[in-house]
Amino acid sequence: MIDISARRRIFGVLLAAGLALAGPASAASFDCAVAHHPDEAAVCASRALSEQDVRMDTLYGVLTRLVGMGARGDLVDAQRAFLARRSACAANAACLSAAYDARIAALEAALAQIYARGPF
């Protein structure tokens, strides 16, 4: 059984790898070269929002690989709801940041539930 600090270190390594692979000039979940919607353009124009997008996308990618089929459907539905919320923010950076913060918190909580069930 891996203790919680080891799990956090493993997750940190996975998150860092995801951030490194994402590259500095684009958001992880979409191509900034073809960003047409105001929310996408705002994320691409802001390093802070782009970093939040990378973190959210990395967490989402990890979770989709860890959960079972039934939970995966719920995760996909929640991601679609997040994307709708993000879209409703248009180019409002404060709204976008709050939407990302809420989504990241939800994904981290789901990951914590998986950790709690361990062992790995």
Radius of gyration: 15 Å
Percentage of residues assigned to helices: over 70%
Residue runs with pLDDT of under 50 for 5 or more positions: 19-24
Structural class: mainly alpha
- What is the number of strand segments? 0
Largest pleated sheet: none
Shape: elongated
Order of helices and strands: HHHHH
Mean pLDDT metric: 85
Note the total helix count.
5
Give the N-to-C terminal Cα separation: 6 Å
Beta-strand percentage range: under 5%
Molecular structure report:
The chain is mainly α. 77% of the residues lie in helices and 0% in strands. It is built from 5 helices and no strands. It has helices at residues 4-22, 38-45, 47-66, 69-88, 93-117. α1 (4-22) packs across α3 (47-66) and α2 crosses α3 (47-66). The model is unreliable at 19-24 (pLDDT under 50).
Topology:
Blueprint: H1 4-22, H2 38-45, H3 47-66, H4 69-88, H5 93-117
Short description:
77% of the residues lie in helices and 0% in strands. It is an all-alpha fold and 120 residues long.
Key terms for this structure?
120 residues; mainly alpha; elongated
